[in-house]
Structure formats: structure tokens, C-alpha cells
Design brief:
The structure is a homodimer.
Chain A (H helix, E strand, L loop, with lengths): L26 E7 L3 H10 L7 E4 L13 E2 L1 H10 L2 H7 L1 E2 L2 E7 L6 E8 L11 E2 L2 H13 L11 E8 L7 E7 L6 E11 L6 H5 L5 E2 L4 E11 L8 E5 L5 E6 L5 E10 L13 H12 L5 E12 L3 E2 L14 E3 L5 E2 L7 H20 L9 H26 L5 H13 L1 H4 L34 E4 L5 E3 L10 E6 L9 H10 L20 E7 L18 E2 L4 E2 L4 E4 L7 H4 L8 E5 L5 E5 L4 H12 L2 H9 L12
Parallel strand pairs in A: 1-2, 1-10, 5-13, 10-18, 22-23, 23-26
Antiparallel strand pairs in A: 3-7, 4-7, 5-6, 8-9, 9-10, 11-17, 12-15, 12-16, 13-14, 14-15, 17-19, 20-21, 20-26, 22-27, 24-25, 27-28
């Protein structure tokens, strides 16, 4: 954590100074509808920018008390780290380490353990796969929002009843909200952008005239969170049990050491039938679970929550309201635009990833850094991802439900499961080339930092203080791009890296670091760092280019956290782990949402410039655009 | 973290259910005077017990805003983990990784780096050595207290003015407090025990008729926390600079990436002269620092805090008010009983360690678990430790101040410094044999778990869920003893460990686990766990002795967190790291403050019983004692 830059202040360094705000609540930059994982992720991301006004509303009367989602993928933990609360989640959560598989012996009637695999293979992510109540995750988001400069809090008891886009492209969106706690009262909010994070029955989606398309539900499942006693030995492992003839069951141990979630397969549904039609009871779920556990005992002491649901995989055609020549102003994220079965453990994670993809883009456009074209990439990137997830989920659900009488089927399930652990970890998402993902990257310079995929961290040593850390620790959710130079062999800041710095400091019209305003720190838009191959004791900080020891803040203090070295402590270093060309080095551009936008040669200043000009426009464009961005809201022309 | 044992409850699991309390504020079990590190540690420890009433008072009007202490030893971080906030400290703090030494070249006038060493060698502790403002540490303690069952908060503006022990041994101590915020008002508090954590000028100590004894101060030092710019390359390392002729300077980089603490050597004081007499100014400190830094630049942008002080090492003859035949009722801890120079970075750490030593003992006696004899060990153990520290500190200060003209002296300082890194880490404390530290332990069974020293953690894998973790993670600050069986080779719970469990479950009069009351969980007094040599995938949980899967809480849920395996992942396992006899195993008794009380053979049930009978009395004694412990306070006879 870096703080005290503009003077020493006592107290909690995570509590940002409150911004002075005198805007009307009825006019905001972004209106977020829904306080689920997507809505809260988006609100928390936007709350990082004191100059953006946000309203987040929910028809519920208060925060979620008991959530349905619980699985938190490694990738989501990486995002939580960027938001500053991963260590708190890790502390309270159950950590998924292994998965065991039980099924009947061939021709036998009793289940037995047939395999155990690691849940997260080595070097999938430096963060763990954990299980924690969704409600608790919400609380961490709410705390983070509340500690931001605008002290953002949701407005509850507000139900969206209408949504209207203005006639002209620059007009705000008009949203009508029923005030559920105030009789028949309603209010109107004018927003530059509206994002529907309002779940599978999204009103925003309906107002956009879109619908979820996909398979109807055909398989009924039950789920319950229980305190129980059993002599089944794997009750604290994630565990898939396929019974001889009574269906399947998935055990997800929960946080706190005692609670357990059971996913229980029930019957196939008839065409058009819904879960609610079946009148499933908690007793029926218990009974079925006991049968599947047999001959092991299962005594339920308390049911904390239970439900029955049908599996449906559905997705919207697009996630925004773009139309001919009109940039999108209304978006949907999370369950509002795609739904899936819970067992792949993806619902909450994908919803949060949607919002993390959208948040920085909205911020960049609202702050005048980028043109509105950037916003198209949200629907393009996330819809493709949702489609892929649905295919994965469908296959997974099918394999899981296949009766285990056939050992071959069971083996197929295990193989599929195992193969897709990386997928489930959330680290397999790969975006296609676009405005923000360079098609003709020099991928061969860093084979393990795949363009279009999330930046895969590795350990490094910070040169100025010798601290061993993850390079990914630097990727805060602050809307900044990262430019990381991996120095060629022998370069101690005096060779190719020096030349790169000279270019970046030249202040030419295409120089991307010029994007920072006159009064801003040089790294306020693009955060430039370097990783050297030398051990840190060999690197001379006093010979570093100035740009890697930038002066910041009102005192011009030196930021010492830009220079890193490979870790020579033990095992492979970051260059080896990420397949970085030791001879030539590599220059990696990382998006604010942690995705690798480009891999270039350290000397590719032209391509580098070209990329950022595409995204941001030239410095001149940017200034002009910024001038059009005032503090007023309604009717203000957008950049 | 374990929670949900007695039913699922939403919200923050660290927030303990509030206890119903209807005691008068004027009658408490323990009165703590002073809200410094010692007082807050003690209060936080005692707040873990809902049945103990505590008042903590301070003459100041509110919490500390800017603290002087900042160094947090590895051992203190281990303690913070036990209190549940180590990860928050680690996140905000500066981590000390290396120390560099600068001095003039022989005959030269310019300083240069002559050595760099690691600050914490491998396997000194699994926790880092960090730097964080004392005020922030206080805040974490205050939060922990406030979240305890009694929602303990300090009472500020209360100054101790008198202290009187009753005539009879069982009478409470009467404390008079001036209410500084209420004119001439004062109030009286009756307490079973009073602990003075009220600093070097302790009123409690004076009331006890004790004084600090030791060397008078002779060396003047300045200290300042600054935001500065410099071209000195090691400004983010802990760094000792010895200038050619202008004295020495110690750099302690601070949290947040910009702030730095400088300890600056000033002049020798004359006999009887105090720091205040010299009229030191901030300007003079800056001037001296600039001279020592020369030829490197040093520009001070902001002074967050500064002070001048003289070094004095002083200690009290004893830390309690024992007298012929009368058990102690009044104690002193921290600076109230010993003072030292700040540069060894020990002040705050030793104060907290005092309180951590005393807290569980007071709790055990107050709760009727142990006889009051236990309380003698506090002064005995901690005074010896303070004396040792003072000798270390004196030598360190002397070596540090010796002019560096002599390379030999400089080298001696470096050697001493390096040798004592373990000492500074706080892990060298070793208590003598006593009631609670077994003299005739079988140390050879676990050479790396030294009797009288803190339990040295190592990684293990939890059998029930395959989680790789530190065994030390289990040592919560909950007043419980730990009994850890390290199983002999080949034992999977069916051999020596099985026999031990049979003995422990026998319920015989000497069986220590019987100390838990009828309505309490079996591990409520002694927390029994086992570590096996087998890989966790080989261990069969369903063949474990019941005692290692104990039933707890109102539902009789199974606690799955008692069984561990050696980590076969990579490198040496816990048996190798801690020198545990693989053939015979070992049985280790750990005190509530993490110190190893005994190392025994797994089958040494007689010695085991003997030890606990000494500490707790027999079950019969205990019940009798407990009967004498009511909820009333004033005048209640003590056990």
C-alpha cells in the first residue's frame, strides 16, 4: 500500500479523504440497478474515481442477508486483491484444495472413493480458490464503496419502473424509480449511463427489448446449506458422489469449519415445467441426500438455507443498447444477460468479471480519457465469454447427471472436470483482438503472458527495499493501464530500458505518458514499471532512468515502487515462469482490468504509440475531449 | 477461522455475540491502568473471556494519535495473528527485508555501502518483521476489544491517584481515579487485580513503592519521521550509517512507501543532564542528518513528528506486589517496569510480550482453573527477560555510538547486529523451569521445539481438507493450552497416538482433558491435536480416535481441525525442520502464550498428568476452587 504521499495523515490509510460533492442526487454519471455481485463490483470500481457520480439502487429493503452463491474463483480473488480485501476473504473462507470422486464399485452397491485431484494446479494463480457466503462478499464491497471519496452507499427500496433514452445522442437516460418505502411516490434519475445488474428477471433488459435465449430447464436440482454430522470421511473436501441409482450429489464445504453445502440431483423436468411446480421440500432433499450418502450416515442438525432450481443456460444477444450510429448508453451485466447452473461455480464470478470489464471503460469515457467507441468492447468481449461459459456449463451439467452405472461415463466426467479446473479458476478467459487488445502482438517475446488473457503474476523482488512480492500486487483497481518493461539480459537500466524511458519522457505528441494532465502524477493514466533480470543487490538504483523513480504529489516525493528484479531465491524466476525472452526482453501493456493488451519488443515505440493513440486519441484529441467534460450532467454533450 | 458451531449466523464472524453484563462499573476483576501497547494487549487478551470483567483507563483524553514506537518484531506478529489482525498489519506495514551498512572508506571522507545482510534469516519465523505506526497498532487492538463479547472500550480522562490493597488476602484492591473531564470529581474502582501499564513514570509502580533502577542517560539522540527526497540509494532499506566524524544515523523506512524515520546521534550528556536541557530543535536534527548523509542530498519536505531523548536502561526489582505469604494483586508491565533505547526496536514488543505473558495467567486464576501461585511466574519470567534485553540494548547502543574511524569497531558492530537479529525478532526469549515450564523434559525428542521458548511453527497439511497451513495458525489467543502429539513413524492414529487418546479419554482423576466442565467442549481448556508423518492422502480419517474428531457445541458437530500431516510437497517437513524424533515422535505441551512448556514421549502419560496436576490441581481441586468463584466481586474470596 502506498500512502502519505501528500503529507502524513493518521488513521486508517484505506479510508480515502471525503470529496466535496454538491451534485443533485437526481443527476448522476452512472445509475446502477441492482446490488448483486455485478452491481456492487461496478459501484466499487467506479467509486475509485472521485470525479464520477454514481447511484446504485435496489428494490430490496437492505443488504443481502443470506446469499446463494459461494464459490470464489482464483481470478475473482485476484480482483478482490485489486479492490483491497482479498486477504479478508481468504481469512474467513474455506479454501478448496482437492476434489474427490466417489462412485459405486463396478456392479457394487456401495460408493467408494475412486480418485482425488488437486483443485488448483501449481501456478494457475497465486490466489486460492475459496468458498465464502455471497452475503459476506457483498459486505466487503459495501465497505470498500463506503470508504471511497464519495462514501458511496446503495439506495434501497428503489425499483426501476421505466427507462428512456433521450432523443439526441448526448442526452442522458431518464430512469423512473418507484420508492417502495414511500407509498406511491416515485422519483426520476437522469444518468449518462445506466447499467442493469438486476438479475435474471432484469427490468433494464426488458426496457431494452432484449431477452435471454437458450435451453429451457430440464433438470431439477436441490441445494442446501447444513450443519450435519456424518461418518463420511470426505465431508470437508469438495466431493462429487455418484450413487448407484439415486442420482448425484456434490459436496462443497463451507467457511467456518462446520457448514456444508450439498447440491442434490433430483428429477428431470417435463417440457415447460419449473422447479416451483414440483413442490420440493427440505425433507425430500434430506431424504435423497441420505440415500446417496448410504452406507455412510448423515444427520442434519440445522438447515441454514435450501432451495430447488432448474438448470438453464441462457444468454442475451447483446449486453448493451447500441443502435445505428448511437453509442451504447444502457448496459446489462451478470444474470441480467446470462444464466447458468451453479455447480460450475461460475455465476457470481462471471457477473463480477462482467462488471470489472465494464467499470474502467465507463470511467475512461466519462473522464474524457477515451472515446465512446471503447464501450462497444464490453458487450463484444463479455458476450463471447458468456457463450463459452454456457457451453462449458452445459457439458458439465450433462456429464454430472449421467448415471454412474457406466464407469466410462464417470471417467469422462472426471477427465472433463479435471481438464476444466483452469476454466473454473476463471483464468481461461481470452478476449479477441480489438481496439484494446492488439492483434499483431509479438507474443513470442512472452509466451506465458498471453495477449487477451489476464496478466498472470509471478514473484519478483522490489529493488528499492528487497521485498519479495507478487508483481500482480501492483495491479490496483484504479483505472490505470500498466506498461511493464521486462529488461533484456544484462540491461540494468542503461540499455534498452533507458532508451524506452528516454522516448517515454520525450513528451512528443504520441508519447502515451503525456496523457497525464499537467497537475497529475506522471503515472496517473499509465503506470510504467520495469523488471530486471539482475538480482536486486546488483542493480544500482542511482543509475536508474528518472522515469522509474518518478516524482509525485505536492512535495515531488520519489515513488520507489516501480523497479523490480527477478527473484533469484529459489526455483524458476518470472522470466522463466512466463516464458519471457531473456535476450530481447518484452514490453507488456496491461489493461486496467488486468488483461494483457499487447506484448511488444522493448524498443517498439512506434507500435506502443500507435496502440495508445487508438485507445486514447492523441494528447491533442484528449485535451479537446476533456474540455467537453464538465461537472454538470443533464444534457451535457458527451466527449 | 472456525465459526457457525452453534448455528449459522450471518455477518462478520469476528464479531462475537454480545454478552449480557449487569455488573457495576465500580467492581471489576481487572483494572488496567494505561492504554499503551502493554495495556491494550492485556485488555484484548482478557476480553477473550466473557466471564471476566475488565476496566482499562487512561489519563489521556482519547486514543494515541501519533506513536513513537514503530518496529514490530516477528514474534509480535505471531501474537497479532493469535489476536486475529496480523494480516491487516502486514498489509499496511513496511516489511524489513535487509539491512545495509554504510561507513567511510578507510581514511576517506565519504560514506559507502560496506555490507548488506538479510534482516530475518530463513525460518526464524513464518511472520515478517514490519514497521507500522504504534497508533495504528493501537487501533487494531481497540477494534479487537470492541468486537469481544463485552465490547470493551477504554475509559479516558481517568487518572490513577491512589491504590490500596485490602487488609485480608481476599480483599479487592481499591483504586482512586481522578475524572479529568469532570472538574474535581473522582471515582473509586474495586478490582481483584490491578495492572499498571502506565509507562516509565508509572503511578502504579510508585504506589507499590518500587522504582526503576539502572544507568543514567548519557547519550543524546534525535528521532524524526520525515517525508524527504534524497539521492541516497538505500533510503528504503533499514540502514546504519556511520559518518567519518559527525556521528551515526539509523534509517527505518516507514509504512506507505514515502515516510522515513531517522535516528540521529547527537552529543554525550553530562552527568545528570536530560535531553530537554539541551534545547534540541528540529532544524538542528535536520542539519546533523544532512551532514551524515553527505555527499548525498537530503531535502526534508515534511516533519511528521520529532523528538530528542536520552538512552537509559532501567528495570524494576520485581513486577508485582508480592509479600510474605500474600499473593500478588498488583502488577506492572511494559515501560512501567523496564525502559530501553528505541533503536533495538524492542520497547513496544517487549511491553506487549509482558502483557501476553500475564493475561492468560490472570484469566486462569480468575476463572478458577489454576491456583494463584501461577501469578508468581509473571514477574519471575518477565523480569529475567527484561534484564537480558537491557544488557543486549546497552551493548548495542554502545557499539552503535562508537566512532567508525576504526574499521574494527564497525565490523564488531555489524557482527553483533547480525548475531542478534534473532534476538531482535523476539524469538530468543527463554523462560527458566517453573510451575509452567517442565525442567526434566525430554528435549531430545524435539530439538527444535525448545522448552521455555516460543513454539516455532512449521507448515503442515490439515488432513480433513488438505489445506497447507502453518501449525502456528491454530494458536489463538483464547487462553487454552495446546497438547500436540507428533506421531511416531508409521503411526496412522492406531498406535501410540491411539493409546494416548485412550488415556486422555479415560476420564481418570488425573486426565487433563477432564478439566473441561460438563457443559464445555472437550477442548475448552486443553486443545489436543496430532501431526502424522504420513501424507494426508494416506491417512484414514475414519480410523482416527474419536478424541481427534471431537464433538462440540449444542449440535455435537465434529471439529475436523485437529488432525494434521507432514507436508510432503517440497523440502523438509515439520519433523525435520523441528528436529522431531521420527521413530518415537513427541508430545509437546504449549502454554496459552505459545511457549513450549514441555516435550515428552507420546506415551509419557504419567509425566503429562503430573505436569497438569501441578498447574491446575486435580479435577477435584478444580471443582472446589471453581465453586469459590462467583459473579460478585468486592470481598469475594479468591480461589
Amino acid at each position: 500500500m502506498q500512502y502519505h504521499l501528500n503529507g502524513v495523515r493518521t488513521g486508517d490509510p484505506g479510508l480515502v479523504d471525503a470529496a466535496k460533492v454538491d451534485e443533485a442526487e437526481s443527476h448522476v454519471d452512472v445509475l446502477i440497478v441492482g446490488c448483486g455481485p455485478a452491481g456492487l463490483t461496478l459501484a466499487t470500481q467506479l467509486s475509485a474515481f472521485p470525479d464520477i457520480s454514481v447511484a446504485i439502487v435496489d428494490r430490496k429493503s437492505g443488504p443481502l442477508e443470506y446469499g446463494q452463491a459461494d464459490g470464489i474463483a482464483c481470478r475473482s480473488m485476484e480482483m478482490f486483491r485489486a479492490f483491497g480485501f482479498a486477504e479478508r476473504v481468504a481469512k474467513e473462507a474455506y479454501q478448496v484444495n482437492e476434489v474427490t470422486f466417489w462412485r459405486p464399485s463396478v456392479g457394487g452397491a456401495e460408493i467408494r472413493r475412486v480418485e482425488r485431484i488437486r483443485d488448483v494446479e501449481d501456478d494457475v494463480s497465486e490466489m486460492p480458490h475459496v468458498i465464502l457466503s455471497q452475503a459476506r462478499v457483498h459486505e466487503f464491497f459495501l465497505e470498500a464503496m463506503a470508504r471511497s471519496a464519495r462514501r458511496l452507499e446503495p439506495r434501497y427500496n428503489r425499483e426501476l419502473i421505466r427507462l428512456k433514452r433521450g432523443c439526441r445522442d448526448g442526452d442522458p437516460v431518464e430512469a423512473g424509480l418507484a420508492c417502495l418505502d414511500r407509498g406511491d411516490r416515485s422519483e426520476t434519475v437522469f444518468a449518462r449511463y445506466v447499467v442493469g445488474c438486476d438479475g435474471a428477471r432484469s427490468t433494464v433488459r426488458k426496457c431494452m427489448g432484449l431477452e435471454l435465449k437458450g435451453e429451457s430447464a430440464q433438470q431439477l436440482w436441490g441445494v442446501m446449506d447444513v450443519l450435519c454430522t456424518t461418518d463420511f470421511p470426505d465431508i470437508r473436501f469438495k466431493c462429487a458422489i455418484q450413487s448407484p441409482d439415486r442420482g448425484s450429489l456434490l459436496i462443497i464445504p463451507r467457511e467456518g469449519g462446520y457448514l456444508v453445502r450439498l447440491y442434490i440431483e433430483l428429477d428431470a423436468l417435463r417440457e415447460g415445467e419449473r422447479a416451483a411446480d414440483r413442490g420440493v421440500t427440505a425433507e425430500a432433499l434430506i431424504e435423497r441426500a441420505r440415500t446417496i450418502f448410504s452406507p455412510y450416515s448423515l444427520e442434519i442438525k440445522e438447515i441454514a438455507w435450501w432451495s430447488a432450481y432448474e438448470i438453464g443456460q441462457r444468454v442475451c444477444d447483446r449486453f448493451d443498447d447500441r443502435s445505428d450510429g448511437r453509442h451504447p448508453r444502457i448496459f446489462i451485466a451478470g444474470d441480467a444477460c446470462h444464466t447458468h447452473s451453479p455447480k460450475a461455480g461460475q455465476g457470481m464470478n462471471v457477473s463480477m468479471a462482467d462488471a470489472f470489464n465494464l467499470g474502467w471503460k465507463l470511467a475512461a469515457v466519462l473522464r474524457g480519457q477515451a472515446a465512446a467507441d471503447l464501450l462497444y468492447t464490453y458487450s463484444d468481449e463479455r458476450r463471447a465469454q458468456a457463450q463459452e461459459l454456457i457451453e462449458f456449463d452445459r457439458e458439465m451439467a450433462r456429464l454430472f447427471s449421467e448415471r454412474s452405472a457406466s464407469a466410462e461415463n464417470a471417467n469422462r466426467f472426471q477427465r472433463y472436470f479435471s481438464k476444466h479446473q483452469r476454466y473454473t479458476a476463471g483464468v481461461e478467459t481470452r478476449y479477441e483482438p480489438s481496439l484494446i487488445t492488439l492483434g499483431d502482438s509479438q507474443q513470442e517475446l512472452a509466451l506465458g503472458l498471453v495477449v487477451g488473457m489476464r496478466f498472470h503474476s509471478a514473484p519478483v523482488v522490489r529493488a528499492a527495499d528487497g521485498r519479495l512480492m507478487e508483481l500482480g500486487d501492483c495491479l490496483d483497481a484504479d483505472g490505470r493501464w500498466r506498461l511493464i518493461a521486462f529488461a533484456p539480459h544484462g540491461d540494468s537500466g542503461t540499455g534498452a530500458v533507458w532508451n524506452l524511458c528516454s522516448f517515454l519522457q520525450s513528451g512528443g505528441s504520441g508519447d502515451p505518458l503525456c496523457l497525464a494532465g499537467q497537475d497529475e502524477d506522471p503515472d496517473s493514466v499509465i503506470d510504467f514499471r520495469a523488471v530486471f533480470q539482475l538480482p536486486h543487490r546488483k542493480l544500482k538504483l542511482d543509475e536508474m532512468p528518472e522515469l522509474l523513480l518518478p516524482r509525485k504529489g505536492r512535495y515531488g516525493l520519489i515513488d520507489y515502487e516501480k523497479v523490480f528484479c527477478a527473484d533469484h531465491g529459489s526455483g524458476p524466476d518470472i522470466f522463466e515462469m512466463r516464458g519471457i525472452d531473456r535476450t530481447r526482453g518484452a514490453l507488456v501493456i496491461i489493461r486496467p482490468d488486468h488483461f494483457v493488451a499487447a506484448v511488444l519488443a522493448v524498443g517498439s515505440t512506434e507500435k506502443l504509440t500507435g496502440f495508445f493513440v487508438e485507445v486514447f486519441g492523441t494528447q491533442h484529441d484528449k485535451r479537446t475531449a476533456a474540455a467537453g467534460y464538465g461537472t454538470g450532467h443533464a444534457g451535457t454533450r458527451l466527449p
